[in-house]
């Protein structure tokens, strides 16, 4: 992997982490819960109907709600620690 590729991948990862809380909030996964009438509410309703009235742990809706409620600090930490590669390893 070349230095430019590494730099672009790092910039893309940082941009995704920065944008994730905004995107989650925009679709309805907020820190206060799922916003009524939002895309997230529709997803939750569909998941609940498919699972007999409850949203199962570990499903997409559950994971996105947890990320929206937490502001994504766990994912940000994971990406940050995963990007700690020395430049000597890249060139």
Give me a quick take on this structure.
This is Interferon alpha-inducible protein 27-like protein 2A. This protein has 91 residues and is mainly alpha-helical.
Describe the structure.
The protein is 68% helix and 4% strand. It is mainly alpha-helical and 91 residues long. It has one domain (3-84). It has a two-stranded antiparallel sheet with strand order 1-2. Strand 1 (29-30) and strand 2 (33-34) form a beta hairpin. The longest helix has 25 residues, at 3-27. The chain is elongated. Pfam families: Ifi-6-16 (PF06140). InterPro entries: IFI6/IFI27-like (IPR009311), IFI6/IFI27-like_sf (IPR038213). This is Interferon alpha-inducible protein 27-like protein 2A. It is found in: Membrane.
How many beta strands in the DSSP annotation? 2
- What's the N-to-C terminus distance? 7 Å
Q: Which structural class fits the helix and strand makeup?
A: mainly alpha
- The percent range for strand residues is under 5%
State mean pLDDT (0 to 100 scale): 78
Order of helices and strands: HEEHHHH
Protein name: Interferon alpha-inducible protein 27-like protein 2A
Organism: Champsocephalus gunnari
InterPro entries: IFI6/IFI27-like, IFI6/IFI27-like_sf
GO cellular component, one term: mitochondrial membrane
List the helices and strands and how they pair.
Elements: H1 3-27, E1 29-30, E2 33-34, H2 39-50, H3 60-70, H4 73-82, H5 87-90
Antiparallel strand pairs: 1-2
